[in-house]
Structures are given as structure tokens and as C-alpha cells.
């Protein structure tokens, strides 16, 4: 286990799990309601931001302890390597996400990630065009993919 430093303050406690996967205690830097029962949460997570790719997800502990027991999976909607932040969008559907919606900026949340496979974009040429399609709460990973594709030109 080690503590990483960002912007002059200790903001992340990380335990490596093998590969790029980590257990991280992250600082919530933004948590806003963007529509009815839909929230955007941004976390300071430099270690995860440095290795995460569009299409991957994180597992979030929704309570302050082990209740509820199971983590909830959320696709990354934004990865900012320069700022060391990640964001995800979620819908309040049950007890776990209801508890998560009550967290405030400045509090900490326990996450595991990055997990899953990323979108495969290495074979796209400069003449190729991408059409991104996503619906409802499945659209946020498309934002992360669009961010990467726009940076590639």
C-alpha cells in the first residue's frame, strides 16, 4: 500500500492488485445531479487515470462500510490524465446507488479499477470516421471514447 500525492496534498491511498487493477480510496471532487435521478461523480484518482482507457469501468463501494456488501460497476465517462481525475455517471435505481447519491464533495469513496476491456481504436486510420451510439445510462462510455477519438484527430 502506498500514498500518492497530487497538487500538494495527499488525496489517494492505493493498493495494487496486479496488472493495472487497484483498490483506491479517492477524494470526491465533484458530485452533481444532472437530471432526475442521474448523477455525475468526479474523483481524484491519478493512479487509475494514468492507466484507464475508454470503455473500462470501476467498482464503487456505495456505503461507508460493508453495507451494502457488493460494489456497483460504473463505466468511466471521462478520464483526465493531466488532472488525475476520472468521472462516471449513474442512475439512482436502488439502495446502493441511493446511498452513493448522498456522498458529498470532499468525502472519500472506495473504488476498484480500472476493470474490463477498453474500446479497440488502435487500428483506426486518419481517413476513418467513427459513429458513436449509446442510449440512456449506457451513453457515458461513449463520452470517454469521443474524448479519446477527438484527441487523435
Describe the structure.
There is one protein chain. With 153 residues, the protein is of the alpha+beta class. It is built from three helices and eight strands; from the N terminus they run E-E-E-E-H-E-E-E-H-E-H. Strands 3-4-7-6-5-8 form a six-stranded antiparallel β-barrel. The termini are far apart. The relative contact order is 0.21.
User: Rg from C-alpha positions?
Assistant: 15 Å
How many runs of DSSP E, i.e. beta strands?
8
Structural class: alpha+beta
Please estimate the helix content: 10-25%
The string of secondary-structure elements, in order, is: EEEEHEEEHEH
- Average of the residue pLDDT scores: 85
Strand content: 35-45%
**Shape by Cα distribution:** globular
Task: Please summarize the sheet with the most strands.
Answer: 6 strands, antiparallel, barrel
Distance between the termini: 38 Å
- pLDDT below 50 for ≥5 consecutive residues: which ranges? 1-12
With strands numbered from the N-terminus, the spatial order across the biggest sheet is 3-4-7-6-5-8
Amino acid at each position: 500500500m502506498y500514498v500518492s500525492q497530487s497538487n500538494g496534498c495527499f488525496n489517494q491511498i492505493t493498493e495494487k492488485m496486479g496488472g493495472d487493477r487497484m483498490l483506491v480510496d479517492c477524494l470526491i471532487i465533484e458530485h452533481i445531479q444532472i437530471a432526475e435521478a442521474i448523477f455525475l461523480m468526479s474523483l481524484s484518482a491519478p493512479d487509475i487515470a494514468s492507466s484507464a482507457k475508454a470503455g473500462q469501468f470501476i467498482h464503487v463501494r456505495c456505503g461507508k462500510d460493508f453495507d451494502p456488501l457488493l460494489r456497483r460497476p460504473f463505466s468511466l465517462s471521462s478520464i483526465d490524465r493531466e488532472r488525475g481525475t476520472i468521472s462516471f455517471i449513474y442512475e439512482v435505481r436502488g439502495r446502493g446507488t441511493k446511498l452513493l447519491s448522498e456522498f458529498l464533495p470532499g468525502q472519500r469513496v472506495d473504488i476498484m479499477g480500472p476493470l474490463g476491456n477498453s474500446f479497440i481504436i488502435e487500428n483506426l486510420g486518419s481517413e476513418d470516421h467513427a459513429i458513436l451510439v449509446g442510449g440512456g445510462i449506457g451513453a457515458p462510455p461513449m463520452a470517454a471514447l469521443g474524448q479519446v477519438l477527438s484527441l487523435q484527430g
